[in-house]
Amino acid sequence: MDVVFLGLSKAGKTSIIRTLTSKCQPNYQAVFETTQKVEKSELTIAGNQINIYDFYGTFQIENAKPEEKEYLKKCASIVYIIDGQNETYEEAVNYFEKLFAEIVKINPNCNYHFFVHKIDNDGFATLDKKTAIISSIKGQLIDFFNTYSNLKPNYDINLTNWQDQSLSEAFSKVIHKVIPQVSYIASLLTSLVTNSKMEKAFLFDQVNKLYIATDAGPFDQNTYQMCFEMIDVFLDISFIYDPTENGQIKNSEGSLSIKLSDNTVLLMKSFKEYLCLICIIKQENYVRPFIIDYNIDEFCKGLEEMIKVTK
Q1: H or E element: which one contains 117?
Q2: Domains along the chain?
Q3: Measured in Å, how far apart are the chain's first and last C-alpha atoms?
Q4: Which of 35, 99, 171, 227 is at 20 to 30 A from 265, Cα to Cα?
Q5: What is the per-residue pLDDT for 127?
Q6: Do the Cβ atoms of 99 and 6 come closer than 8 Å?
Q7: How high is the pLDDT of residue 27?
Q8: Long-range contacts, stretch 21-27, CB < 8 angstroms, 24+ apart
Q9: CA distances from 237 to 60, 77, 255, 275 (A)
Q10: What are phi and psi of 219, to 5 degrees?
Q11: How many CA atoms lie within 13 A of 195 on its CB side?
Q12: Going by C-beta distance under 8 Å and a sequence separation of 6 or more, which residues neighbour residue 137?
């Protein structure tokens, strides 16, 4: 399963990849040198190895090396990074249009994920300026793909920055397209939610806080953010009582429960493969915790069996 990152130089491709693939605390960032050649990184999610190819910003497809064309031909998804703070964003859009015209010939079924990156408010003189740039980028991309409507290209546009969960949420969508077991995991989560009278359940990779799957119920942004932040709470507690060198996250088992003021209970269980299950349940449906714990254990067993088969 291959994913290719494309975009102009200084858009943030390498920083995003290093953040997603590092087993360090989620807020860890560093400055990286400009990419000069295609660099490969690996990410393991629920037993699946995902190969990520970071293309250099000066890449020109008409001069592509044979191995570079092969990466583009084989990849399931392309993540295209646009620097939302760069006023020459039209150059980035034009660069993608040139790439797409050639990629679609060799990989017509590829998925495209656009990350309009660095869109935190501090990077813009006014909120109106930010809104205008984002609207312009989205409009240009939509208009471009409308010209290829006969090919029915699969794409989404995401707004990302370092300061919230947007980057992890956006890359989660990439994961959903490349991991073949997502629908199976979602069905397990749906059964768990139904049998336990839960409100919602997510399976996360706790290293980079990607959500691998969720149940069939409605997706609510606030609920997702609450689960996302619960991982931070769990990791903070883990580092206090069981610190590691360089802030590296341990591949271990543990659990945490939090009762909110609205009588909602958050349940988290982490287990091997850096996975964690987060469930939301109303207090009135949590009167027999041992039954909920049993159902969660059964879910984990089913997931672990799936991972064994995947490996």
Answers
A1: strand 111-117
A2: 2-178 (3.40.50.300), 182-310 (3.30.450.190)
A3: 14
A4: 171
A5: 80
A6: yes
A7: 46
A8: 21/52, 21/208, 22/207, 22/208, 23/207, 23/248, 23/249, 23/274, 24/246, 24/247, 24/248, 24/249, 25/235, 25/239, 25/247, 25/249, 26/168, 26/208, 26/209, 26/231, 26/232, 26/235
A9: 47, 36, 11, 17
A10: -90, 120
A11: 14
A12: 82, 84, 89, 93, 116, 157
- For residue 282, the SS3 value is strand
Sort strands 275-282 and 200-205 into parallel, antiparallel or unpaired.
antiparallel
Bridge partners of 270, per DSSP, are 254, 276
Contacts of residue 139, Cβ cutoff 8 Å, sequence gap at least 6: none
Structure tokens, 118: 């660095």
DSSP-assigned beta bridge partners for residue 282: 264
Closest residue by Cα to residue 265 from 292, 238, 298: 292
Q: How far is CA 215 from the centre of its chain?
A: 17
Give pLDDT < 70 ranges for the chain.
Answer: 23-33, 121-125, 238-252, 310-311
Tokens of residue 143, six digits? 């208009």
Contacts of 39 (CB under 8 A, 6+ apart): 14, 53, 54
* CB atoms inside a 10 Å sphere around CB 151: 12
User: What three-state secondary structure class fits 87?
Assistant: coil
Alpha-carbon distance 209 to 251, whole Å? 14
Specify burial of residue 18 (Cβ count, 10 A radius: 0-12, 13-18, 19+).
middle
- Tokens in use for 30? 């560093």
**Closest-CA residue to 275 (of 150, 189, 154):** 189
Which candidate, 219, 122, 115, places its Cα nearest to that of 163? 122
**Which residue, chain included where needed, has tokens 């069981």?**
242
Query: What one-character DSSP code corresponds to residue 154?
Result: E
Element (H, E) at 52: strand 48-54
Query: What is the per-residue pLDDT for 241?
Result: 54
